[in-house]
Design brief:
- By secondary structure, the chain is an alpha/beta fold.
- The protein has 11 helices and 10 strands.
- An 8-stranded mixed beta sheet has the order 3-2-1-4-5-6-7-8, sandwiched between helices. Strands 9-10 form a two-stranded antiparallel sheet.
- Helix 6 links the parallel strand 7 and strand 8.
Length: 291
């Protein structure tokens, strides 16, 4: 099928990034959230990020203005039902995602494709709660969406070939690269990345090194552009913990056990950049390690 319109559920960091790239690629976008404040912040964020792209010569001012006009916001979840492709980008909790798909289902066109931006949850299980498991798949963007080139496409057990090809066509139109992943916990990127971050937290927890030494060691010793603890703060420590729990539960291997220190930070509400505190304290002019 031809994809002309995109529904994006969730106006947070991932949702507004997805709306941003879709609108620039010429798609009509309907962005929804339960909070008007979140929608307003998303539009302001998209406008600011596109403005920086204009300033750097990445896009033309006229392209930015045209893209902004393609984005419609709504508090009514049923409004996204008329789109050709829906991308759910809500919080990384399976019960929340299932509730969204159940509420949306009566309002969908028969041919609409459903996708989830989940970074770890079973696509097959999410699809099984809908009326269209053959037209359901994982559509996992990397953060920040406008910058990162990779998109993981994950087929559930029932996903048909036309659905996969339609989503692949969208990725290609965005100018990004698709990686096809099987439906196992964490898929490809997070199956490899999150245990590394978790091990960095264990290294901190066991006193092998402090925050600064761990991050500098991986940046200078392994040529990583960002240290693992700094990256965890950027992703969100609650998201990291949720993914580690999915890996631990789904693969039943103790090597995926979340570090107790990661759990403690999340319980404290020190979730990283979005909370102004995580492995670094961001409340001053320069981030300061918290351990």
């Amino acid at each position: 099928m031809t994809i002309r319109s995109i529904g994006v559920i969730g106006a947070g960091q991932m949702g507004n990034g997805i709306a941003h790239v879709m609108a620039l690629a010429g798609y009509d976008v309907v962005l929804t959230d339960v909070s008007q404040d979140a929608l307003d912040a998303a539009i302001a964020g998209i406008d600011g990020n596109m403005g920086r792209q204009v300033g750097r010569g990445k896009i033309a001012e006229a392209d930015m203005q045209a893209a902004m006009k393609r984005i419609e916001t709504t508090l009514a979840l049923p409004d996204v039902g008329a789109t050709d492709l829906v991308i759910e980008a809500a919080t990384e909790r399976e019960s929340v995602k299932q509730a969204i798909f159940e509420d949306l289902q009566p309002h969908l066109k028969p041919e609409t494709i459903l996708t989830s931006n989940t970074s770890s949850i079973s696509i097959t299980r999410l699809a099984s709660r809908t009326d269209r498991p053959e037209r359901f798949m994982g559509f996992h963007f990397m953060n920040p969406v406008p910058v990162m080139q990779l998109v993981e496409l994950i087929r559930g057990i029932a996903t048909d070939q036309p659905t996969y090809e339609a989503c692949l066509g969208v990725v290609e139109r965005l100018g990004k690269t698709a990686a096809s992943a099987e439906d196992f916990p964490g898929f490809i990127v997070n199956r490899i990345l999150m245990p590394m971050i978790n091990e960095a937290v264990y290294t901190l927890y066991e006193g092998v090194g402090n925050v600064k030494s761990i991050d500098e060691s991986m940046k200078l010793g392994a040529n990583h552009p960002m240290g693992p603890l700094e990256l965890a703060d950027f992703i969100g420590l609650d998201t990291c913990l949720a993914i580690m729990n999915v890996l631990h539960d789904g693969l039943a291997d103790t090597k995926y056990r979340p570090c107790p220190l990661l759990t403690k930070y999340v319980e404290a509400g020190w979730l990283g950049r979005k909370a102004q505190r995580g492995f670094y304290d961001y409340r001053g002019e320069v981030p300061v390690p918290t351990r």
